[in-house]
């Protein structure tokens, strides 16, 4: 059959998830809010509040013709439906994540569900690098339908998609489709929350590493400085204050990383509970493929956070060692300065004591014109003695400076 008419009741859904931040617009919509999309669009918009998150669900098909549910239609409409839903989704940002879902029924029993799912993925064109072989990560069965999970992971763009294709011979039951989508809604939330938690942990890790690498560099430079004769201690004092603040930040970041680990564990448990709830909707379903994300999250997200915590814990000791070393170096310099001051006081005292041993000044009362020659000679002797005393005091001060022992530090 031509792909131009290969799917009965093709419908596109978009799930957008945001943290519950008290937004007036979102709170005004409230929980269990639902309204029809404005013509010429055919579908609805609904919001569910899940604890600390908003979940917006948009649903759209290409016509309200009753025959839409019984006659094969073209899957070329998927690209247009995608654009329509993006225009209607302005109320939500999807900061936690978003998931697309295609639902429909095979036109006849001869169709290959996987080949049609691949064509739907190509028509939806969520990115320029869609590759079914690498992006299709799971396949299962539920409600007489084959279900496919598609996840494209890229550095710049990524997307998540479910494709649900009901068997040609089954009776299309819209309430069953709605129950399935309502069961998937919290599952998608916990999936996106796990990935968002891991992304936040990577950002925290980057901040911790920045402090760690900076402190290691400061420690190396400090070790180089202490070997010098003349050390400028002003930078060391500034780095000491900075490192004390960074130690507090480091501990806060490590605590935040522990919290992300706990949130990851809780998210995995919630994801598993949602998978179990889906199983209760259809006991004969095959949803084993959903476990793959759980295993992926444990290996690549949870264990990565646990490794980061173990790796970064020794950084606390590095910061503490730098603080102790910087304090020690500053204390040593302060002790040396005190010793120099003590030596200066002793040397000055010795010099002063020596200079005070001067001959008496000539008697000014006895000066007269007759004995001026004798007076001049007396003053000359005084000045010579004074200069000799200064030189002697200076010499004694220098000797005392070198003889006074320095304290060992």
Provide an overview of this structure:
The protein is of the alpha+beta class. 56% of the residues lie in helices and 17% in strands. The chain is built from 9 helices and 9 strands. Strands 1, 2, 3, 4, 5, 6, 7, 8 and 9 form a 9-stranded mixed beta sheet that branches. A hairpin with a 6-residue loop joins strand 8 and strand 9 (159-166). Helix 5 packs antiparallel against helix 6, helix 6 packs antiparallel against helix 7 and helix 8 (314-355) runs antiparallel to helix 9 (372-403). The longest helix has 52 residues, at 174-225. The chain is elongated. The termini are far apart.
Question: Structural class given helices, strands, pairing?
Answer: alpha+beta
**Helix fraction?**
55-70%
End-to-end distance = 93 Å
Instruction: Please give the count of helices.
Output: 9
Oligomer: single chain
Largest sheet: 9 strands, mixed
Number of strands: 9
Mean pLDDT score:
82
Strand content: 15-25%
| Rg computed from alpha carbons, rounded to a whole number of angstroms | 42 Å
SSE succession: EHEEEEHEHHEEEHHHHH
Q: Based on CA inertia axes, which overall geometry fits?
A: elongated
Spans of at least 5 consecutive residues whose pLDDT stays below 50 are 341-358, 364-369
What is this structure, in a nutshell?
Helix content is 56%, strand content 17%.
Write the layout of secondary structure elements.
Layout: E1 7-19, H1 24-29, E2 33-36, E3 42-50, E4 53-61, E5 72-73, H2 77-88, E6 97-106, H3 113-124, H4 132-135, E7 136-142, E8 145-152, E9 159-166, H5 174-225, H6 234-281, H7 291-312, H8 314-355, H9 372-403
